[in-house]
Amino acid sequence: MSLYLEVKNLSVLYDRAIVLNGLSLHVNSGELVSLVGPNGAGKSTLLNAMSGLIKWQRDTLKGSVSGKITLNGSVKFDGAELINLPAHEIARKGVILCPERGRPFREMTVQENLEVGALFLDKKVADDNLEKVYALFPVLKKRSSQVAGTLSGGERTMLSIGRSLMSEPKILLIDEPSVGLAPLIKDSLFERIRDVQGMGVTILLTEQDVSFAFDLASRNYVISRGKIIAEGTSQELLANELIRETYLGL
Amino acid sequence: MFVSILINGLVSGAVYAILAIGFSLIFGVAKIMNMAHTAFYMLTAFLILGAITFLDMPLPLAAMASIIVAGLLGVVCYKLCFDRIKVHETAVMIISVAIAMLFEETILLTFGAQYQRIPPFVEGYFELGGVSVLNQHFFTAGASIATLVGVWLLLSKTKLGKAIRAVDQDREIANVMGINVTKTSMQVMGISVILAGVAGAVTAPTIMINPLMWTNPLVIVLSAVVLGGLGSIKGSAIAAFILGYAETLVVFIVPDGSFLRGAVSLTAMVLVLLIRPEGLFGVAFEEERL
Amino acid sequence: MTVPFLQVENLTKDFGGLRAVEDVSFTIDRNEVVGLIGPNGAGKTTLIRLLMNILKPTAGKVILKGEDITGQKTAKIVNKGMASTFQVVKPFRHLPVAANVMVACLSPKTKRKGEWVKTVELRALDALEFCGIADLALEPASVLSHGDLKRLELARAIATEPELLLLDEPFGGLSPAETTLVAGSLRRLHKGGRFGRLHSEGPAMLIVEHKLSELMKIVDRVIVINFGKVIAIDVPGNVVKNKDVIEAYIGKGGK
Amino acid sequence: MWFRKSVLVIPGRVIALMFGITLLLFPLLTADEATLRIVTFAAIFSLYAVSWDTLTGYTGQLSLGHALFFGVAAYASALLDLHLELSVWLTIPIGSCVGAFIGLIVGLPALRLRGIYLGLVTLAFPIILSGIIFYFSDFTGGEAGLYGLSRLAEDKITAYYIVIAIVMCSIFIMFKFTDAKSRILRTGLLLRAIREDEMTARASGIDTIKYKLLAFAMSGFFAGIAGGLYAHYIRVAGPSTLELTFSIQVVLWAIFGGMGTIYGPVAGVFILYPLTEIIRFYPYGEEVRFILLSLILILSLLFMPEGITVWVRDKIEQECTRCKVINAATRRTCRACRAPMYLTKEENANQGKE
């Protein structure tokens, strides 16, 4: 398996507050890797930094919201350096973020939401992708002309995954897919994520729900205070008493 | 009476709607409170006047050229001013006021302060229900509504339109979905100013034009945008029609009270906001209030 | 029969169609430390916001010291003796850390004759010292790290001299060593007394937390909620054995 | 001693002090009535701009219709003067109280609205009021306004000193009222807290509603003083004091000078207002003055988006990173804790690189 995505020494500072502290990790092609850790550990910040959002915030908002932002390190994807690319270029290279709670475009219909994902592709490719997404998530087809703001939590997450699939991703960065979902919906989402992986898409997801993440992923990282604390398969991590107690809270 | 209220309300409502849509587009996409928006409307009217008197252009050509020039000027303003300090939202707002002032004073200097007239696009008048209505009014209403339909088609059918709406609703997510937000913002600035220009061109023949004519519509547009719920393009258009009709009604009920026009629509806005702080069509998300 | 210190009756909250908190009832006594646990999205944070009236409950009552405080202003509730920390910390970013706490020291509740105006700075410093971040007092809050912000939030809450403290993930994002430290301070705080010029009334506490091992050491009772409903209220020893609780936490497979 | 320690060593305060002294000695420097008039107006408008800054810069309640307070007080003073023939020393305070009362009324929607929504609602009030004033033109004078008010004082120089004294005292009160570091009044800290995050302030037990209304009332009161002085100085209270441009003008001044600082709006007014008046005396000045003014505004905001005083302040003053005491930028060690200042500069530069 080839090294696909490699994050090296990534640091993010909001003013002088360190959110990511020289973090490194890698994802191989075709893998499903999970990133678990408590609130405020820096999971979302990591995904945002990889997808170019932090860079965008740094350049556009210039700290008007949360102070001066500093971003250092390297994110290599398929041999290309991403850290200095604007977010839309990163997306066009096939690294797509599914944000926490989906964040659909609320006032657009489900179908329009999906179409936005493929705006930079040809119409024909976009239509094909739409078919594929509808086949994967029949529930979205049922709701295709409904305004996205009225969707339930699970549907929003599915919509955001579907929206990312529209842009023919090579790697999906899914932020907290299971947050706030009922067990039944969690289970079906679990299956869908497996299906997406089956389509040949590499996935990096963050989770607070350790059992959900560990069942799904082939390899896991434990993150705490902006650093990777441990890495390994679910069995390895669960076998380690210290990590289980202090970081996973099991 | 009823017919003329209907027509006049329609005319002013449609024009305000065009202005309000342009304003809320650039506000939604680039977070710019463009107080110079209606100054572009005034500018276009005077560009047309200039093109007719100094360059002897035929009216339709003059109108087209003026709208395009205004649009280009808008993009230049965006590039030179707004884009460079977009972080400081208050500074952006003040710069737009300064730009509006600059336009106003330049026009004052070249054309003078007196009221001037632009010939109508179509001559003559028309009897309807016992009232004579100028054909120009029909033209203005028709052109405005055609523009509104055009904007609606642009926003709902084209790729650009979808990109604009996506950026309007969530800039960050639109960005990570592969949309170039900076480029879209500039395009929207162009579109927004062109809309203001269209509004100026179609209204100019129905009123006396004057360099100070941008303040009153600005107040109406601001209240329409807030009344409709900031960020809701549809809401601001509908609110613009409501305010347009409210204004027309006031003029009919209190004939010599044209100074009350602004006051009444603003009172309506204040009352609505007190009852529904998020505007008529805005959505309040309780979960996000903290 | 005595009136319980805090009594929550049938508290319910709807978000649009979603019922985030459903028919929650429980009581807390004056000298109790109670844990509130449950999986992500179970409604713990919503419950705390409902108690503080940051969100308006759809139905139900909150009774503090025998007085119905449902729907009263948040500031008024704080002045009646119930304070809370938030999971998402929002400090006054451009104000120094000390000033952040001083704002809480200025609330009417902490007003005591004569010494009030003079001791505001000193009491704020004492609160910071108690939480272990006195050395950062002059820095603006925007430079604090996540862990320090959590402690600032705690300092702000205890500076209002509460009788009941609602803590939303006080250990969230803290390292194990820091967690032990903060847990220790919470225990000291609960005993009450004076810390420098800071007066602690030995508040009762309701603690929302994910780090169960730490939590179980300091609490007297645990409330478990899932899908907005209370599924168990018991002493820590029994809760871990409760079948419903295990299922809610580990999931149906029991893996 | 206190004065030498905390005023004379800080360049910004030295400039403020010199400015104050210059204002007091101004009539000795020039006897030109037109110049004196410009400075008097600048003083009145700076009080007006400072009152806007208290509300928007410090408390974060965007007011786009500040002319309301100014105009209402001007009209109230004029009516009291013309109909009840009260003395100037009564009409201005009563007028300002009316301003404060109007502030409270406008403040009520502020409890539900925030940001640009609030700005738009405040923008509406003066326009609504001027509609009413035109409607009842018999009582209010309509377009021409109320004229023939009694003078502040018989001669110009006395009037100048009255205005300067009142304005200086008012600005000093507001400086104390909004100073977050003040040890006497705590309102400054609370207002800043409300601007930063209202929810956190409430959770700290602060009744934010009370303090927001207080800010509105204070702001209305001092804008009212400015309005009363203005009306009595030019002896007319007209609808121009309620115009939209007059509301926007104050925002221009304050943001040009630097929002959220008391000295910023003062500097903004004292730079921009005399400038627009002086240009008039030059050939073609009358025609091009607003063009020049807007160009100056655009350029200065492009390079100093946080306002001119903030830009200057950052050049001449520096905060010690250790003890947060303000030092002159030229100092090499902190005057309070003796920590080396140049080191902290380097530290700041290196911050991003670690």
Number of contiguous helices of chain B: 11
Query: Structural class given helices, strands, pairing of chain A?
Result: alpha/beta
| Main β-sheet, spatial strand arrangement of chain B | 1-2
Helix/strand-derived class of chain B? mainly alpha
Mean of all residue-level pLDDT scores of chain B: 86
Number of discrete domains of chain B: 1
Please tally the β strands of chain B and state the result.
2
**Quick one: overall form of chain A?**
globular
- Name the beta content range of chain B: under 5%
Mean residue pLDDT of chain A:
85
Amount of beta strand of chain A: 25-35%
State Rg of chain B: 19 Å
User: Unreliable segments of chain A (pLDDT under 50, ≥5 consecutive)?
Assistant: none
| Terminal CA distance of chain B | 50 Å
C-alpha-based Rg of chain A, rounded: 18 Å
**Proportion of helical residues of chain B:** over 70%
Number of beta-strand segments of chain A: 10
Based on the structure, what is the oligomeric state of the protein chains? heterotetramer
Written account of the structure:
The complex is a heterotetramer of chains A (250), B (290), C (255) and D (354). Chain A is α/β, with parallel strands linked by helices and 250 residues long. Chain A has helices at 43-51, 53-61, 87-92, 110-117, 123-136, 138-142, 153-166, 183-198, 210-216, 234-239, 241-248, and strands at residues 3-14, 17-28, 32-36, 69-77, 80-81, 95-98, 171-175, 202-207, 219-224, 227-232. Chain A is globular and about 50 Å long. Chain A starts with a strand and ends with a helix. In chain B, strands 1-2 form a two-stranded antiparallel sheet. Chain B is globular. Chain C has 255 residues and is of the alpha/beta class. Chain C has a domain at 6-90 and 161-250: P-loop containing nucleotide triphosphate hydrolases (Rossmann fold, 3-Layer(aba) Sandwich). In chain C, 35% of the residues lie in helices and 25% in strands. Chain C has nine helices and twelve strands. In chain C, the strands form three sheets. Chain C has a six-stranded mixed β-sheet with strand order 6-7-10-3-11-12, with helices on both faces. Chain C has a four-stranded antiparallel β-sheet with strand order 2-1-4-5, covered by helices on one side. In chain C, a hairpin with a 2-residue loop joins strand 11 and strand 12. In chain C, helix 3 (97-105) crosses helix 4 and helix 3 runs parallel beside helix 5. Chain C is globular and about 50 Å long. The model of chain C has no long low-confidence stretch (mean pLDDT 83). With 354 residues, chain D is mostly helical. The longest helix of chain D is centred in the middle third of the chain and has 27 residues, at 208-234. In chain D, helix 3 (33-58) packs antiparallel against helix 11 (208-234) and helix 4 (67-84) packs parallel to helix 6 (115-135). Chain D has one domain (31-318): Orthogonal Bundle (ABC transporter involved in vitamin B12 uptake, BtuC). Chains in contact: A-B, A-C, A-D, B-C, B-D, C-D. Chain A binds chain B through residues 51-53, 56-57, 60-62, 64, 86-88, 90-92, 96-97, 99, 103, 105-108, 112, 115-117, 119-120, 149, 163-164, 167, and chain B through 86-89, 159, 162-163, 165-166, 169-170, 172-182, 232, 283.
